Amino acid sequence: MSEKYGKIPPKFTKEWWGHFWYYYKWRVIGIAIAVAITLVTVVQCVSRPKYDMYITYAGHKLYSDNLSEKMQDSFNEYITDIDGNGKQSVFFQQMTFYDTAGNEEMDSAMQTKLDFTFTKDCSFIYLMDRAEAELYINRDSTNRLFTETAEWAKDTDAEILKSEDGAGYAVNLKDSRFLKERELYCDDLYLLIRTNKKDDEKNKKAYEDSLKIAEILIK
Taking the model in full, what pTM does it have? Predict the structure, then answer.
């Protein structure tokens, strides 16, 4: 050790600190960076807003921040305080695709992000444009991922997108009174409901609220 590090001064003396910093500064810097990243992550997790429900848009339209907030506010009053924090809160998340040259990696990352939402708690309402809706209802896993419209949109006269086996999964919202009254975008917009496969009360309640919102949207 003495050959590698030279003669080591007595610990905690001025010479020792200089010796220590010379040989270990990058290790110290690395540890400091790791600790800083951990602290930032913890703070973000603690301070991150909590929501009772997630509503996801997937398509080729980009909603403005104002429109996203308006979408959230429009649904808050129709849900329950699922997490028990004293307020009802919906988070409207959008996944926008470009399908243009040069944006392939971005679209791929967005697709991965969208697929991940299907594993999240309290995330059952999906609004998609026709292109994205058709993509999903013709996947082999569709009947395990989404609830058929026969279970939640029995009396609607709206167009229903069906999979190749004839089962309906998406309802056209272009004539949605709820969205039109609030001047919210509804052209080329379809509603799909993800099936709840979890038994906890939080997800059960979020799914029930999602069906209530679905009923309002398709009128």
Answer: 0.74
